[in-house]
Amino acid sequence: MTTAVKVRRSRRWLRVAIPFAVLFAVITGTLVVHAIERPDQDDAAYLSPVSQDGIGSAVLAGELRERGVTVIRETSSETALSAMRGGAATLLVTTPELADLDQLTAPGALPAGTRIVVVGPDPSAIARTNWPVEVTRERWATGLVAPACTDPIAHAAGTAAVGGRWYGTSGAATCYDGAVLSLGWGGSTVTMVGAPDPFRNDRITEHGNRALAVGLLSQNPRVVWLDVHHREVQPQVSPSPTTETAEPRTTRPTREPRESSTGQPRDDPARGEQPQSQSEPDPLAEAFPPAVWASVALLAIALLAVAIAAARRLGTPVAEPLPSRVPSNETMLGHARLYQRAHARDESLGILRAAAQRRLVAHLGLPPGATIADIAEAAGYEVADVQEILADFLPENDAELVSAANAVQNLVREITGFEGDQS
Predict the structure, then answer these.
(1) For residues 213 and 196, is the Cβ–Cβ distance under 8 A?
(2) Which of 43, 96, 261, 376 is the least crowded, having the fewest Cβ atoms under 10 Å away?
(3) How confident is the model at residue 419, as a pLDDT?
């Protein structure tokens, strides 16, 4: 009996644990696969014009050269700014999270009429500029988006894989429902593209990616390609609120204010009067779009609802008093039908034998723990005969069950001499 109870408890535990284990495995597997498939901006091959890897951009660079566009690769923001002063050019920023956008967007840093194309800037990258743009929504996996605008480049390209981030601002031209946004800023034209897919070697041939990428970068005779794969500017450390007049202590070198083209020092956003963030954002929370966490929460709520709905099967039945009296004969017949439906012949016969054994022990004046051998000896019967009736014989069908029940009843009648109900 103890072993059976342990088995039932183990099964109940498995019924609760397995759904959560499956959910955990699915979520973990999805996150691992996504992390493997999603390239990092600090990968040297990522959108590099000299990389032939799938995440590189050598194919796009070759397309531009075939169209007569000079591609100039620079590996720092400072050298990129110097190259931009050599004539009309388009500045391509492929890793906005690593590049020094503060320096690139400084007033007067770029010649008037410059075109800047930024690939997939996130909110933290945009915050390091003065562009009045915000990320309105994000998508975990890049999606296809129709142009939905009259811009000639987007109209010629058609549907493209730019649905990674969507941007919004007032007074700016948007295409692809905001996944591509262009605005004038400081005499330059800034274009943000919501996903890197149109620039990648392994995705450029899909849909309208090639036409869109080439169209955005071939407006000027030169493209200054900023190929940065390390963080150029380290995050500034906020000074302690209790040391307002003291120099903030930090192990990182501080950057002196740079001068603008007019020779006047330019305010540094990390210094000046702008408020500092009191705490850095959680990198895990920002690693995935809000939709991912919403989906996880929804699945957890659904599993909790299923567990609550099935809670009545997770514990043992609770005995409750019957609201009315039921004749013993009807109760016996009801139990019998339940046992018959479950094909529980051994259990049914076991109940009859236990009741008969208790009746015989009481009739013969034996102690409660008396065995079948004690009953046979006290009644003057052969032990083997009583053992066969009260224990050994196991019915294989309903007919044998009826015969065994009659044998039990007859044994009780013979010993007690009572002809009534033997229960």
Answers:
(1) no
(2) 261
(3) 55
